[in-house]
Amino acid sequence: MVASALSFSVMTVCVKQLEGRIPVAEVVLARALISLVLSWWLLRQQQLSPWGTRRTTLIWRGVVGSAALFCVYAAIAQLPLAAATVLQYLYPTFTAALAWGALGERAGKRVLLAMALGWSGVLLVAQPNWLPSFGQSLNPQSLPPLAVAIGVTGALLTSLAYVLVRNLAPDEHPLVIVFYFPLISVPLSLPFVLANPVLPTGVELIWLLGVGVFTQLGQVFLTRGITGMPAAQATAISYVQVIFAALWGTLLFGEQLNNLMMLGALLILGATLISLRPPRKPQLLR
Asked: 284 lies in a domain?
């Protein structure tokens, strides 16, 4: 899950470098085509059938994941990198609630504590204007409401996609689940691209290639991680992407970090460490 978070953070850098000139649908299509080729190659290497057994659920996972990707890329293009990533990390709470309702997973006290710390850290990093104690002094420019709504919608759709992955885990190979994501994204994004095509430059082609490669890496790591542990715990670990986003934003895009952002990053790191700690074994009576 940590490797997945790092890969996705590099992917967001690639999207941000496109500076919004390339339409979101075109970015999604480029990512899907690259991922489709890589997924097919990985399936052939392991001599696996790509079509799976629960095809209806696999298709729905691809549809929901593709819709989430549109929202995430749109939010990255319109918002500061750290802010877009923070909004995306509203999804662990949604995931825990959906996993409890749809999968019957119990969120233990350790995971609940990790989620509470992570949520607090996300708020400190975001510093939204509606926080009365420090919103006006540290974040005088409010984020565009439509872009925020898109980011929140992306988080909700992402959580639903993760719960579908968890539901598919007992019956499908992780590479098959990954394969269906671009398989559905290509036909969904192609009509939008044909309606408004933009020819990328040579440098933009490199960034588009980076979007596809690092998203593929992130998806492989994510699917392996989320199929190997409860959904709520897996998503709590992935909070660490917010730290990566803050670092990239500072180093590459000149986004400023203040003390509250640093405190938020520490809380998120604490949430990751708590979620990784194995549960205490009960002592035997002697």
From this structure: no
Q: How far apart are CA 246 and CA 85, in angstroms?
A: 9
Q: Helix (H) and strand (E) counts for the chain? A: 13, 0
Output the pLDDT for position 162.
83
Name the domain count of the chain.
1
Write down the pTM of the prediction: 0.79
The secondary structure element, H or E, covering residue 24 is: helix 24-45
- Give me the domain span that covers residue 223: 2-276
Q: Is residue 187 part of a domain?
A: yes
Phi, psi of 6 (to 5 degrees): -65, -45
Which residues, 6 or more positions from 105, have their beta carbon under 8 angstroms from its beta carbon?
99, 166, 230, 231, 232
Q: Is 201 helix (H, G, I), strand (E, B) or coil?
A: coil
Helix (H) or strand (E) holding 4: helix 2-17
pLDDT tens digits, one per residue of 54-81? 999 999 999 999 999 999 999 998 888 8
Q: In residues, how long is the chain?
A: 286
225-258 in b/e form (b: 16+ CB < 10 A) is bbbebbbbbbbbbbbbbbbbbbbbbeeeeebeee
